[in-house]
Amino acid sequence: MTDTRDQILATAFKLFFEKGYKEVTMNQLVSASGLSKGAFYHYFSSKEELYKVTLDRYIDSYMENFTLDFDEQFTLKENLIRLFGRFAYITTELKESLHKKEFGMANYLLFLQEAMKKNDFKEKIVRYNAKFYSELAIWIDIAKKRNEIDPQLDSQILAKHLTSLMKGMTVLFSFGQGMEPLAETFNQIINQFFSYIERNNRKNSWDDIKE
Question: Is the pTM of this model over 0.85?
Answer without folding.
Answer: no
